[in-house]
Amino acid sequence: MPHPQRLAPAGLLLAILVAWQLLALSGLPDYLLPPLAILRHFFAALGTAELYQHIGVSLGRALPGFALGSLLGVAFGLAAGVSRGFDGAFSPLVFLSYPVPKVVLLPLFMLWFGIGETSKILIIALACFYPVFINAYYGARSTQKILVWSALGMGASRAEVFRRIVVPSAAPQIFAGLRVSLALAFIVMFAAEMINARSGLGYLIKLAENNLRFDLMYVSLFSIAILGFAGDRLLRAIREKALAWQVR
Length: 248
Known about the structure:
10 helices
């Protein structure tokens, strides 16, 4: 039987949706569709090829950007966490540029890399880099020194210490960074597609706004929410498999 604490979020969400639907009976503005109407439009859109085409285009931008940015974030974060020289040279640049909103750099990326897919993928990768780098960095730095000293004292090489002690120690924080990074991938993808795109879910929302197609707007938003939630569940499942050794 599910634990009451696990049922509480679902119950709260259900209560909000029921209240929203009941408010619709008394009349809501045209731009605020009731939940049942949104579901009806969403399932109707699932029967068309157009929605899947836009979803495929958006995933073709978000996932490569997420993979590239996360891979570089893990590599550079771990390197900065174990190397004082690299940390001193590279980390200040990361922490200095981190507060800058990445979407505002899209015009520059379009000038540098063109208005095609490359600039969109790279701006997504840049946004995904920072949370993974920071989590990998502090994960590596939090490795217990006594474990490192013990391993070195027993004859382990630095490469073995890095692979068998530092990386497992940093892994929980790396996965936390990956979850944040994945959410950012969809957020930046959405923004980039609204600024300059002729396809994708962000473009659909802009098109819906220009044409007052509120049904299309909610379908696109609902699609992005489902994709983000599914990706997060997948990452959590991978984390549980990869970190099964952890005491829960």
